[in-house]
Amino acid sequence: MAFEGLANRLQNVFGKLKGKGKVSEEDVGEAMREVRLALLEADVNFKVVKEFIAKVKEQAVGQDVLKSFTPGMVVIDIVNKELTNLMGGTQSKLAKSNRPPTVIMMVGLQGAGKTTTTGKLAKLLQKQNHRPLLVAGDIYRPAAIKQLEVLGEQIKVPVFSMGDKTSPVEIARSGMQHAKDNGHDYVIIDTAGRLHIDESLMDELKQIREVVKPDEVLLVVDAMTGQDAVNVAESFHQQMELTGVVLTKLDGDTRGGAALSVKAVTGCPIKFAAMGEKIDALEPFHPDRMASRILG
Ligand code: GDP
Hints:
Order of helices and strands: HHHHHEHEHEHEHEHEHEEH
Bound molecules: guanosine-5'-diphosphate
Number of strands: 8
Largest sheet: 8 strands, mixed
Strand content: 5-15%
Radius of gyration: 21 Å
Number of helices: 12
Structural class: alpha/beta
């Protein structure tokens, strides 16, 4: 389960606090020390942890809280609210262009789950009665085009491809035209992922962006890589002005560091979370629900 380690630790800390009729400033201090450790062990960015603890403490040690009828519960509420804020506060929705098609560019490093997520997103949009078109722009990874075509077939969403001999910029341009000609209201462009961020990858992505003028540039990152995922997000955001992040493999991420740090570090909201390999394992990311899940 996602966040298992962190959830267990925090539920343990707050279980003790909840049971107390009276809560002293020392009790809160002790609980916050444990929360701090739990967050660091969950691989949350150090600076993010520091600011988080300071914010909670500032609100929790006031006399109003400690003298309240259920002080333990009030402290937990404060932590819940701040965890929600940390992950972006409210749900950040997918953009919708008033001049369809809405264009979504998927970017990320190889292996993060970009191609799978592209298919999942198409399925999600289709369920909402949209008519998405998938564009196969990853011409470098062997079998990436085939993989997208198989996914498209599975969910009955058309895939526009021009093989691997045409430049991705040209594929994107032609894909856009195809979408307009065929009445698609969403275009999702799968782009090349490399093993590392390099200049040629970024240049190509920027060229595609120039041509398709996307409403969304979504970065797909593997949550299991923790702070590496956050660093990747930061680099991509600096170069590509991302509009959102998709966290994948949350089903295998027992720590949760990426989910808790990425918004705070990059300023870029998490828009979706993927929790499994199956085609319907993609959900809009709700910071409040995620916080409640962590606190149990
Ligand atoms: P790409 O190179 O970024 O396009 O990555 P792929 O879409 O090919 O995915 C790489 C691997 O990660 C595949 O085996 C996927 O099935 C797997 N994968 C993708 N998303 C998830 C997820 O949310 N959970 C799990 N457990 N596996 C995932």
